[in-house]
Amino acid sequence: MDPTKTPPTRQCPANSEFTSDAPCDSICGVPCDFKGVRNICICMDGYLKDPKTQQCVRQNQCSIPEDIPIVTRVPTTMRTSIVRVCILLVLMALATRTATGLQCDPIYEEFTDDGCDDTCQGSCIPMKDFCACRIGYKRDLTSGKCIASDQCTPVPESITLSCLG
Question: Could you name the domain of life of the organism this protein comes from (predicted)?
Fold first, then answer.
């Protein structure tokens, strides 16, 4: 192809425009599936593709039964927000999931399949498939809860009496 020539422009039907990438085509009565469409003519904003005529028409000109709602595209900013919330929910579910059905505290604990749970009392208990305290927290053995490391009660030092042998 000669680099000095511009590629031919794609001719699209009335009220539509060529796109190289879009989340979906706007069709009367069909919600966007977000599977993506590439290199096609899609309806311009304010128009929907009529399923009977395959033409881009105004919303009030769609030839679908009145009981079927007319669905338009979700705005990009709303779609981005929905995706972010879904990702956050999945991450929270993964962080608190366990194979044993045990529910971890999403703030102070995280599920691990193998490791050591640090305690306020200075020990490290090796365990499998458990809720471990997150970084910066230690398990208080008296309450069984994860608390901030700086909130741990100091462990009493052992006293040795030399006179007792």
Answer: Eukaryota
Of 24, 43, 61, the position where a domain reaches its end is: 61
Nearest to 57 by CA among 48, 70, 66: 48
Distance CA(164)–CA(104), nearest Å, equals: 47
Query: pLDDT value at position 156?
Result: 59
Residue 101 included in any domain = no
Tokens of 103: 């529910």
Range of the domain at 52: 16-61
The answer as to whether 56 is a domain residue is yes
Q: Is residue 104 part of a domain?
A: no
Total domain count, the chain = 2
Beta bridge partner(s), residue 127: 115
Q: Which letter does DSSP use for residue 20 in this model?
A: S
Asked if 128 contacts 111 with a C-beta cutoff of 8 angstroms, the reply is no
Residues contacting residue 9 through CB under 8 Å, at least 6 positions apart: 18
- Return d(Cα 130, Cα 125) in angstroms, integer: 11
Q: What is the pLDDT of residues 23-34, one digit of tens each?
A: 888 888 777 777
Pair of tokens at residue 78:
């709303």
- Inside any domain, residue 66: no
State if pTM tops 0.85.
no
